[in-house]
Amino acid sequence: MRKGFLFLTLASLSFGIAAQESLSETGKLASLCKVWGFLKFYHPAVTGGKYDWDQELLKREPLLLSLKTKDELSAFYLNWIGSLGSLAPYPVSAVDPAPGSITRNLDQLWMSDSTLFTDSLSAAFKNIVIHRHTGKSNYVREFPVIGGVDLVHGENLAVVSPYPTPEIRLLGLFRYWNTVCYYYPYKYAIGIDWNQELIQMIPKFRDAADTLQYHLAMLELSLSINDSHASFTSNYIDRYWGIKTPPFKFKLVEGKLIVTSLSDDALARRDDIRVGDIIQFLDGKPVEDFIIKKSKYISGSNAAVKNRNFRLVLLNGQTDSLRVTVVRNNISIEKTIHRYLSSAFKTAVAEKTFWKLLDPTTGYVNMGDLSRRQTPKMIRAMAKTEWLILDLRHYPNNTYPKIAEYLNTEKKAFALFMDPDYTYPGVFKKREVVYCGKTNKSPYQGKVILLVDEFTQSQGEFSCMAFQTAPHVTVIGSQTAGADGDMVFFAFPGPYKAYMTGMGVYYPDWKETQHVGIKADIAVQPSLDGLSKGKDEILERALQYIKEQNK
Question: Contact at 8 Å (CB) between 202 and 173?
Answer without folding.
Answer: yes
